[in-house]
TrEMBL record:
Physiological role: Required for both de novo synthesis of the corrin ring for the assimilation of exogenous corrinoids. Participates in the adenosylation of a variety of incomplete and complete corrinoids.
EC code: 2.5.1.17
Pfam families per record: CobA_CobO_BtuR
Molecular function terms, GO-annotated: ATP binding; corrinoid adenosyltransferase activity
Family membership noted in the UniProt record: Belongs to the Cob(I)alamin adenosyltransferase family.
Record's protein name: corrinoid adenosyltransferase
Keywords: Porphyrin biosynthesis, Transferase
Length: 75
């Protein structure tokens, strides 16, 4: 099973969720469940708890060409 916590790091940054509780919940997941967390600025404690950390960089984005955020893509 796969759980995607899209933009979780932003929710943590603004204090909508408690980091310690999020880490505890992720660590308590079933053994067959994988969790993917997205968003900029992952807290160091979350990075430390992760099995894998990947940083992505923008090469090309529609916004740079004047295309506004699109429903279903950016939000």
């Amino acid at each position: 099973a796969l759980v995607l916590l899209d933009e979780l790091n932003i929710a943590l940054k603004y204090g909508y969720l408690q980091l310690d509780q999020v880490i505890a919940d992720i660590q308590a997941r079933p053994a067959h469940q994988h969790v993917v967390v997205t968003g900029r600025g992952a807290p160091p404690a979350l990075v430390e708890a992760a099995d894998t950390v990947t940083e992505m960089g923008m090469t090309k984005h529609a916004f740079k060409a004047g295309i506004k955020a699109q429903k279903g893509v950016e939000f």
